[in-house]
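Entry for the shared binder. Reason: the reviewer on the internal report wants the predicted structure included alongside the sequence.
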Amino acid sequence: MNPMLTKWIENRIEKGGSVKDERVRSAYGKAASLVGIGCNALLFAGKLLVGTISGSVAITADAVNNLSDASSSVVSLLGFKLADRPADAEHPYGHGRYEYLSGLMVAVMILVIGVELLKSSFEKILSPTPVLFSWATVLVLAASIAVKLWMAMFNRRIGKKIDSQTLMATADDSRNDVISTGAVLLATLIAHFTGLTLDGFMGLAVAAFILVSGFGLVRDTIDPMLGSAVSREEVDQIRRKIMTYPGVLGTHDLMVHDYGPGREFASVHVEMSASEDPLVSHDIIDNIERDFLQEQNLHLVVHYDPVVTDDPRVPVMRAFIAELAAAIHPQMTIHDLRMVPGNTHTNVVFDCVVPYDLKMPEEEIRRRISDGVSAQYPNYFCVITTERSFISAAH
């Protein structure tokens, strides 16, 4: 398989527009699925023929693995076609999560095949039978390794280009097939030149690779369906972009909701000076929302938080409390701080964002911050609202 084939497929698809276009993205997904169906069907036929003639359960197991890969490509193709359906009254956010469902179905199919191959491999170990050697067997297995290596690179390239977890998982599965088929080829050569029969053990290894791939795919497809936290890299990128707009003092409470690849919706609070003309601030917020939609296909809703900037006590108090929070946990932050003076004391009201990996009780967090403020400012009382972060702690 030549890299020129990959380039030819890309050129044919991208004639229709940019990869950011949902139609182009869907065309890529369907093309990758069709390539997977064709290649795996050919590999299945070739290996099944050689495995049957030679009596090798490992080669037959590898053939069945290719059949399961072809079936999974059919499911992936169906998933991309269903995810292509436009939004409707019952599904206003579109049907993009069909792609995740198809990935989950692929994982289940892989696991079922893996269990069956595990059983047959154990039987082969307990009751070994001789394997008939032929150079045709070696040729078929070597060709399979070459095809699967190209498929791994092809699916990874396309998966990265269209940000498809399903294709990335397919690439990993093809990579595992390269390793498992290499093991089968090695067992065949060892049996021929040494007489040592490792066929059942290699079949066991093939089954193990299939099961590991299936479990990994289950994890990768279930996470976005359950609503996994947005990565810190994406959070930092969104924040950096928002902070480039005039008048923006800070951001907080960013939430990103995934309704399928290329269908992200988000909301964020943006702090701006309370003394600024609200019409001017509103215009800036409109620009932020429009730019994110046009440039990143992110449907962003911005909540305007006015911040008092003409009271010199506020920034000093905000910086002091932020240090107290960071001392408890480096990723703990505060926002929406305001000061309400009274006859006998001043209330300092703010929200505190607590990372999920901090196991300290929220009552203890509030007590520590309040004690720290009271020690420095005796007549200041804290009114703290704690909330959990929607951001992944992973870097």
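Summary line for the report: The mean pLDDT is 81.
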